[in-house]
Amino acid sequence: xxxxxxxxxxxxxxxxxxxxxxxxxxxxxxxxxxxxxxxxxxxxxxxxxxxxxxxxxxxxxxxxxxxxxxxxxxxxxxxxxxxxxxxxxxxxxxxxxxxxxxxxxxxxxxxxxxxxxxxxxxxxxxxxxxxxxxxxxxxxxxxxxxxxxxxxxxxxxxxxxxxxxxxxxxxxxxxxxxxxxxxxxxxxxxxxxxxxxxxxxxxxxxxxxxxxxxxxxxxxxxxxxxxxxxxxxxxxxxxxxxxxxxxxxxxxxxxxxxxxxxxxxxxxxxxxxxxxxxx
Length: 279
Description:
The N and C termini lie far apart (37 Å). By secondary structure, the protein is α/β, with parallel strands linked by helices. It contains 10 helices and 8 strands. The protein has helices spanning 15-25, 44-47, 61-65, 70-77, 104-107, 153-169, 192-199, 211-219, 231-251, 267-271; strands at 2-8, 32-37, 79-80, 87-90, 121-129, 144-149, 179-184, 203-207. 33% of the residues lie in helices and 16% in strands. Helix 1 (15-25) crosses helix 9 (231-251).
């Protein structure tokens, strides 16, 4: 089982849209994908992508408050994201946002899914924007944490405190990093590798700036067969592959870090570390 938390900083592109794109692109391979809307602001997925089409009782509260079998609670409260029935959403808002101090034990219950039903689960948690001064307790319940940011100076400056939280929470001798940076809209205006170098985080990859495809995810705009071939969804597929590689490496602590999962740096930044974006 893999639990992946996705969040952004103030002024950054949406963590919610990114988490939804990852859930839709994640290979099932006989398992299930659960997307949890744990954004304290909440309900963007229900009112946006699903356009309000959530059943009674649907909500992320099933994770934090279920007293009986968690699998039953999930299937009783989740909404299918597509026709497979294996990509599910627990809509927000969550009663115990995972960024709240001390909330990690409630969210660690997600791991019970792998011990029931005999199927493999990938859980994506949309955390929303990371509040200033938040502690790193969410990392105790997540295998991987993805910080979403843009490539402008303003976006990099806003992401810097969150990047510091991820760096300080990183285990000292991990064979693979848990905290990753995902850049939306590379070269608007700075390259993704330069942004990652400035923030001191390993680069997961970049997502294409693609407003036409993004509005399908954010607002439930009509999508045809063209949607899977858009620049956004093609870039999401590449990022999903790297996340899966990272999860496999993390779950096999004796395996070496894969070369394609190392931080990328631009030649200019590598030659002169003092001239990085937004410093």
